[in-house]
Design brief:
445 residues, FAD/NAD(P)-binding domain, binds flavin-adenine dinucleotide, 2 domains, alpha/beta, five-stranded parallel β-sheet, seven-stranded mixed β-sheet
Length: 445
């Protein structure tokens, strides 16, 4: 399901220019001068990921005249992935799942550049920018208009390159077209990747329209959805899509494709069993095979079989951004930024990274939203400490974390260490946690 309007976050140089936006009465002139002044350090935050929205709240609590902070991210909001399957299921509105970053920027006195980083040279402390369609310029859904930057005015010039004293990277995992196609030919043309999540959310709305049109034109047709990838995200989306399509009166058949011999492979066996049993209850078929090619109306599997598919959702194959490859930063074997216990690059002390884009050298860790969120406060403190040459704090993530897999919006499975539980009460619990989390970013003028 390729949409020619969609920005390709995997390639460079394909964007229309959009803009640089100032908040908190900063002007173009101050921007130009402060970045060059000796006494004022420039901090660039790359990406409004789960960790950086926490950093913004830290910066608001510790506003510093000697620190000039710029956030570079393409969208005027951060999509909270934990609630996205609930949006797909029709339970939440799009705005319920979006953190409006403008009030956070204003509170922290941080400038926003609506662009993406397309290149980084850590040896010269410079980043390259690529401007393109963003929430600010393309409110292509009814809900994003709620987050248009009314209090932010555009700058005339748009720098192609910026230098920094301090850099923090929280740009998440990506699914670049070139990489997807190399693994599964046809994936970018015929598949619906779940990243960038903002694009996925918008295209889900189109997918529902497509499903309804097919049902109207072909009475009796059962809309076939294949979700490739049976990790927690693929599972949650399979349940959510079933519910969402039913709600729109579309007869659908959902198939989950698992390349691993078990679903939810990162979870204990008790969780895997519960997930499988609930998939059966909801008549979601699980096929244990690897998807090798995606076509417009079917996909091929490595066992020689093909599956009919009106909509192929790609919930696998997330990877590190390829623009990091030539950055000069120390990277792990998969291209993630290597950091120490201070969330600081092991090769460049003026670069920090957290969330999916980073790998800690001193410990094994999950790559998920919970881990990214928890790193945020310490990342913020360490950026402030580093700006004033103070000692850094070690970030020690909790050994256990509560994980909840939603199975539509009437059932969920919780996991803590070896323990698991399920039921509609677990779903209500998750709903409350997620709504409270979102409420913590709500600001009234
Ligand atoms: C549908 C879905 C459901 C999920 N559910 C859960 C869940 O329930 N629990 C859980 O723990 N995890 C969940 N995850 C995983 C979770 O979303 C990620 O682990 C988490 O988002 C990682 O956070 P992050 O801060 O690293 O990056 P992200 O949250 O991905 O944020 C990255 C930010 O960087 C911006 N960006 C990207 N590229 C650039 C660039 N080149 N330049 C500038 N900015 C850029 C993006 O626009 C975004 O603002 C889910 C994922 C998906 C897709």
């Amino acid at each position: 399901m390729k949409n020619s309007q969609d920005p390709d976050f995997g390639a460079t140089g394909q964007f229309e220019l959009t803009g640089v936006y100032f908040v908190d009465k900063k002007t173009d002139a101050t921007f130009a001068t402060t970045l060059g002044m000796e006494s004022i350090k420039s901090l660039i935050l790359l990406g409004a990921g789960h960790a950086h929205v926490q950093v913004l709240t830290q910066l608001a609590k510790n506003r510093r005249a000697d620190l000039d902070v710029t956030l570079i991210t393409p969208w005027a909001y951060q999509t909270y992935s934990g609630m996205t399957p609930g949006y797909v299921a029709g339970h939440y509105a799009q705005s319920d799942c979006q953190i409006n970053i403008e009030p956070l920027l204003r509170e922290a006195g941080v400038r926003w550049i609506s662009a993406r980083c397309s290149g980084l040279d850590a040896n010269t402390s410079s980043i390259m920018l690529d401007y393109g369609p963003s929430a600010a310029s393309t409110p292509n859904s009814q809900d994003t208009a709620a987050h248009s930057p009314q209090h932010i005015s555009p700058l005339v010039s748009r720098p192609a390159m910026l230098t920094y004293n301090l850099l923090s990277i929280d740009t998440g995992s990506v699914m670049e077209r070139r990489v997807l196609d190399a693994r599964m030919p046809g994936a970018s043309e015929h598949g619906l990747p779940i990243r960038p999540i903002e694009q996925f959310v918008n295209r889900w709305t189109q997918a529902i329209q497509q499903a309804k049109a097919k049902a109207a034109n072909h009475p009796g047709h059962v809309f076939q959805v294949c979700v490739v990838g049976a990790g927690a995200t693929g599972i949650e989306l399979a349940f959510g899509m079933r519910q969402g399509l039913l709600q729109h009166g579309v007869a659908a058949r959902i198939t989950l494709i698992s390349a691993t011999p078990v679903v939810a492979a990162n979870f204990p066996t008790s969780v895997q069993k519960k997930v499988l049993a609930h998939l059966r209850r909801k008549q979601i078929e699980v096929v244990f095979a690897q998807c090798t090619q995606v076509h417009s109306d079917h996909l091929d599997l490595d066992n020689g079989n093909s599956l009919a598919s009106d909509l192929t959702v790609l919930a696998n194959g997330a990877h590190a951004p390829t623009w990091l490859a030539h950055s000069g930063l120390a990277l792990d074997e998969h291209g993630h930024v290597l950091t120490n216990k201070h969330l600081q690059s092991t090769s460049h002390p003026n670069v920090f990274a957290a969330g999916d884009v980073a790998t800690r050298v001193d410990m094994a860790h999950a790559r998920n939203g919970v881990f990214a969120v928890r790193a945020g406060p310490n990342l913020g403190l360490n950026l402030l400490a580093s700006a004033s040459d103070q000692p850094l704090n070690a970030h020690t993530p909790r050994a256990q974390s509560l994980n909840i897999i939603s199975c539509g919006t009437d059932h969920a499975i919780a996991n803590w260490g070896r323990f698991s539980a399920e039921g509609s009460w677990v779903w209500r619990w998750k709903d409350r946690i997620d709504r409270d989390y979102m409420a913590s970013f709500h600001r009234t003028d």
